[in-house]
Amino acid sequence: MSTSNTLTIYWCPASYLPDYENWASLYRDPISVLNVLRSTKNVNNNGSFFACPATSELFENVFTVLSNLTDTHVFPVDLLKQIHKEKNEQVLPTNGKIQLSKIRDTSLEGYVNILYNMKWFFFSEEPVSMTFTPPYYPVSSPAKGNLLSSGTFDIGQWPRLLTLDYHIPLDVEIFEIKENDPLFYLHIKTDKKVKFQRIFMTPKLMTFASESAQSPSRYGFFKSLQQRYKMAQQASIQKQVLSEIKQNLID
């Protein structure tokens, strides 16, 4: 494990493979939420929350990724009501730039489960817990009443993709992400300074992420994350993933 005061987290777009296609212009580097807030700071207020140690500690290692374009999807009348219980996967017929897809049955009554076709791969040089949440300071959402699937896992042991997996109310008519909107928040549970290093996605890295996603069906349902981490440790998954990452750094 590194003894440095800096924690390097490697990341890359994961909705495509560079050897076959490229959507790299969509993906901006993660930035500190505090830095985003400072861009609107009232310089005449010396007693602002920026001076509050409780606020600073809360947001010290919270990061966001901002959208690089405006993307508006107008749903055909009653589309979500028609498809929310259908079993088949399907691309939604909208006029947006980035594909919206229904990929699974709904988990929540009154909602349809929709995937926005942007994905990320994050992996740390050492074990660290990362929590993925919707933006909440301020609240930002592409649709009224929308829910973003969230979670926590160790990105130094578990190579799993992050996706924009939404639960959208059936009466929603417009799904819109504007340029510079925050897409999600990342809470990195560490006292170290976090450094993000961009890499190239490769077919080998994609296979590791795919194995993690398919772990329940391959190796057994209802296993805890700790059980899955143990299995990965025993198979030296971290060393294998870091070896591939180090060969695909972007200087």
Entry keywords:
251 residues, alpha+beta, five-stranded antiparallel beta sheet, 14 strands, 22% helix
- Distance between the first and last residues' Cα: 23 Å
Beta-strand fraction estimate:
25-35%
Q: Structural class per helix/strand content?
A: alpha+beta
- Quickly count the helices: 7
Q: Tell how many strands the DSSP assignment holds.
A: 14
Arithmetic mean of pLDDT: 93
Uncertain segments are none
Q: What is the helical fraction, as a range of percent?
A: 10-25%
Following the backbone from N to C, one meets helices and strands in this order, namely EEHHEEHEEEEEEEEEEHHHH
Quaternary organization:
single chain
What is the makeup of the main sheet?
Answer: 7 strands, mixed
Shape: globular
Structure description:
The chain is built from 7 helices and 14 strands. The chain is an alpha+beta fold. The strands form 3 sheets. Strands 1, 5, 6, 7, 9, 11 and 14 form a 7-stranded mixed β-sheet that branches. A 5-stranded antiparallel β-sheet has the order 2-3-13-8-10. It has a two-stranded antiparallel ribbon with strand order 4-12. The two termini are 23 Å apart.
Summarize the structure.
The protein is of the alpha+beta class and 251 residues long. 22% of the residues lie in helices and 30% in strands.
